[in-house]
Structure formats: structure tokens, C-alpha cells
Amino acid sequence: MAGFRQIPTGLPGLRADWAESSHAFPRHSHDEYGIGVMLAGGQLSASGRGQVTAGPGDVITVNPGEVHDGIPAGGMPRRWAMFYLTPGLMAEMRIGLKGNSAEVEFEAPVLQQPDLCRALKSLQTQIADDDHHAPDASVQEGMLHLLSLVIQPADRNRLSWPSKKLRRVKEMIDDDPTGNPSLDCLALEAGLTRFQTLRAFQRATGFTPHAYIMQPRFDLACGLLRTSAPLAEIAVSSGYSDQSHMNREFKRRYGLTPLAYRTAITGCNSVQDRATPTMV
């Protein structure tokens, strides 16, 4: 069994996801902060904060840029609900809580706090029951309450770059995620051999350059899937070689096809997509 649902929260910068899946998610990262609760089943995950296991009632968190995976315990389906906050919204929340916008992080990847679990479930139920129309103030108050239970000052030493040139390699990829720079090109920019560039980049980011560039492409495609553009057009615009390539990446990452993801976040399929069922 697999399912995915995304609901607008009424608060800019905050989204709510509900999912049920037995899919094993490969190593990836998010641009946002994530906090949610396991509703059923179990999840195994490895990240920069260690190897963790989460079961029903456990609160799970992720920080922006944190590389992690997600494996179903025992290969059985698990069900969870998550909130994702942009760094900008988190900064606003920090001001509301502490009077300043200093960078924060979730310290523990899994928390067993009944009060926090109840706060999460209450806010998730409110958003779902209000059918997308929860007032901004009400949602913000609920989020402020649950964040007050968990946020900590950020550890600024967690990610370090060995050189400005290697940082430039990352910037080259970030500036054009649809590009396809060769390892030779990246090594030349870094002033290192290809092998040294590969090793140094992976130590700094948790990804090889190729795996790293697939993340912003995936994020770009997810954004375009909110529009009515044809899947083939979205694939090319996002840097994939073709629609089949994008389809394989979505299945590997989400356990869903791009069309299924579009349906989950918009509630409809486009005419163009229905005309090409062999690519779904």
C-alpha cells in the first residue's frame, strides 16, 4: 500500500504532508526544516546525526541540507505526517519565541515526547479538518507552541568546506542544476584531481557531485509539477534527459511516478499527461 497527500496550511512557508509507503527512500536532503510524527509502522534512517529508529508516536525531525535516507522497518509499510518549514519562516518563528532570528536546528532526529506528539497531531488534524482554510494566526500559534518544545541554537561547525575553490564547485552546480558539468570540469575548477574532487565534495556534502545535482533537479521538477505543463516538457526543463529519466528518478526517490505526485499535490491530472499513459 502506498499513498501521498499534500495539503496547503494557509501559512506561507509551511506545508503539510501525509504519507504511507513501504518504499526505501535513498539518500537525499531537504531545503526546509521538517518535523512530524510516525503514525504506524517503523522507520530506520541514517543521517549526520546517527543511525536512528522511529516507531508509532515518535517525533521525527530533519534540518535543512541534512543528508539522510529512510527504510521501512521489517520491509513493512509505515505511515507518517510531516510539517516542512522554510528557513525564512523558521527565522520568523525564532523571533516570536526568542526575540531574535538566530539560526536554529533540531538537535535530535527522533524524540519520544508525548506532549510534542500531541501538539503535532492536534495541528495536523486542525489543518486537515479545516479543508485548507485554517486561519494563518491559528496555524502560526500551533507551530510556535510545538517549536518551543524542540528548537536549539545551530551548530555552525557541522558543515565545513576545505577550500574556497571546492565551495565554488558547489556554487557552479547550484547556479545551474539543469546543467551537466563533467567531473573533469569540476576538478579543474577545484584545482584537484578528479578523484580528489570526488572525495572532497562527498566529505563536505554527503553526496557525490552527480548525486548532489540530482537533488535540485528533483526539487525543480516538483515545483513545475504544480503547473499544467506536460511531463515531457517538465523533464527537459528540470535537466533530465527525457520523461523516462524523470519517471525513474521519481520512482526511486518517492516510490511514485511524477503523474501520481502531481495528482497528490494538485488533485488533478492534465490532459497532456493522460495522453501519454505509457510514460507513467
| Major sheet characteristics | 6 strands, antiparallel
Q: Please tell me the total number of domains.
A: 3
For this structure, the CATH topology of the largest domain is Jelly Rolls
Instruction: List SSEs in N-to-C order.
Output: EEEEEEEEEHEEHHEHHHHHHHH
Can you tell me the CATH architecture of the largest domain?
Answer: Sandwich
CATH class category label of the largest domain: Mainly Beta
Major sheet: order of its strands? 1-2-9-4-7-11
Can you tell me the overall shape? globular
Average pLDDT number: 83
Radius of gyration: 19 Å
Backbone structural class: alpha+beta
β-strand percent reads 15-25%
Corresponding CATH superfamily of the largest domain: Jelly Rolls
Helix content: 40-55%
Number of strands: 12
What's the N-to-C terminus distance? Answer: 18 Å
Assembly state of the chains shown: single chain
Number of contiguous helices: 11
Low-confidence stretches: 270-280
Can you describe this structure?
The chain is an alpha+beta fold and 280 residues long. The protein has helices spanning 87-98, 114-129, 136-147, 164-175, 183-190, 194-205, 209-224, 231-237, 243-254, 258-266, 271-274; strands at 3-8, 14-21, 25-28, 33-40, 43-47, 50-54, 59-62, 68-72, 78-85, 104-106, 110-111, 151-153. Helix 2 runs antiparallel to helix 3 (136-147). The radius of gyration is 19 Å and the shape is globular. The chain starts with a strand and ends in a 6-residue tail after the last helix.
Please write out the topology:
Elements: E1 3-8, E2 14-21, E3 25-28, E4 33-40, E5 43-47, E6 50-54, E7 59-62, E8 68-72, E9 78-85, H1 87-98, E10 104-106, E11 110-111, H2 114-129, H3 136-147, E12 151-153, H4 164-175, H5 183-190, H6 194-205, H7 209-224, H8 231-237, H9 243-254, H10 258-266, H11 271-274
Antiparallel strand pairs: 1-2, 2-9, 3-8, 4-7, 4-9, 5-6, 5-8, 7-11, 10-12
Helix pairs in contact: 2-3, 4-5, 5-6, 8-9
